[in-house]
Amino acid sequence: MRIFLSPPHQTGTELQFLQEALDSNYLAPTGPMLARFEAEIRERSGRANALALNTGTSAIHLAIRHLIDHRHPREDPRRPLVLASSLTFVASVAPAVQLGCEVRLIDAEHESWTMDPVLLSHALQEARSESRQVLCVVPTDLYGQRCDLKAIIGLCEPAGIPVLSDAAEAMGAKDLEPLSPRPWAEVYSFNGNKIITASAGGALVSDDDLLVHHARKLSMQAREDFPHYEHRELGYNYRMSNLLAAVGLAQLQKLDERVAQRRIVFEGYRQRLAQVPGITLMPEAAWNRCTRWLTVILVDEDAFGASPREIRKALEAAGIESRPMWKPLHAQPALAHLRFYDHGVADTLFQRGLCLPSGSALTDANLDEVCGIILGTR
Ligand SMILES: Cc1ncc(COP(=O)(O)O)c(C=O)c1O
């Protein structure tokens, strides 16, 4: 049977929650399951507001749109400036680019593979020297690992720059030292490949009432509070459906268990691969207990005797899915024109990295099989 990279892991209660949603007849982007789902996300995140949406990408889009409407001076002819991680999925920055922002990308640092605060500091200084106001900074958590948010917020807070934390890949991760202040807003994804899923979905959480109120309105075609349909601004159709919220709610009950299982999977790989010359595993940064959403290895081809590509091909031939790391955004043809604060980390990681099957239902026998094939490529 095929081994997938990160398949959904059902809890057994999805049907029960779905049945409840069907019985209520709220087959709509509103309803009691959606309200319960949002209440639980709010509680888990410890934030004042949570808004459930059809995707995580929509959450990023709405947050940036809100900032453009409320923070970007209308008289400024220059485009709003956004600083974002380069080593990530395209959805982290596509909404800002599509909304007409100038995005500048920041390389990763060695300790966590996430946004380098030193390079961010250079980018902020440069923006200051150009008299450019920064609309927001978007640091992206990577494969379950939190960014160095303490350092990043420490740079942004004194300048009043909002931090929009893209935590799509790190729901369930723990900051070991509570963040104070916390990021202005955070984004989660419940896409089918995430640690828990609603099959599709996302959420925006924040203590900023104005943001979440505005985002909620924008997510429902920006309808004003009138009996008829009145629109003073234009919005989107981005709300999560009550049925998908039922699936998400069932999944949310097991989030901590799923994190523990993913960490056990990582540990299984560590035991089998850590001593092998030429292979290293993704580090866990000191400031967090990451989720190990995906286990990632780095392969030094000379020391190991095979390349990440050869390993991926051998796994594929055995019906096992693995994937190269994110190709950094500065290297994407659609984004190659963006300014990039570079010190070569993301490019090296992309060349050497390989994401291994990491599903929370993976067995010891699965791990033996995957690692047997990896070692057999030498
Ligand atoms: C870092 C990151 N940001 C944003 C997203 C977008 O989430 P969604 O697929 O729910 O739109 C994803 C994943 O899908 C992601 O990995």
What is the gist of this entry?
This protein is of the alpha/beta class and 378 residues long.
Radius of gyration: 21 Å
> What is the CATH fold-level name of the largest domain?
Aspartate Aminotransferase, domain 2
Looking at this structure, what is the CATH superfamily of the largest domain? Type I PLP-dependent aspartate aminotransferase-like (Major domain)
Structural class: alpha/beta
Describe the structure.
The chain is an alpha/beta fold and 378 residues long. It folds into two domains: 14-252, 3-Layer(aba) Sandwich (Aspartate Aminotransferase, domain 2); 255-376, Aspartate Aminotransferase, domain 1 (Alpha-Beta Complex). It has helices at residues 14-24, 32-45, 56-71, 94-98, 117-129, 149-156, 209-218, 242-252, 255-273, 301-304, 308-317, 345-352, 364-376, and strands at 49-53, 81-85, 102-106, 134-138, 164-166, 174-175, 185-189, 202-206, 279-281, 288-289, 295-299, 323-324, 340-341, 353-356. Helix 4 links the parallel strand 2 and strand 3 (102-106). Helix 1 runs antiparallel to helix 8 (242-252), helix 3 crosses helix 7 (209-218) and helix 9 (255-273) runs parallel beside helix 13 (364-376). The chain binds pyridoxal-5'-phosphate (PLP). Pyridoxal-5'-phosphate binds at residues 55-57, 88-89, 91-92, 140, 166, 168-169, 189, 191, 202.
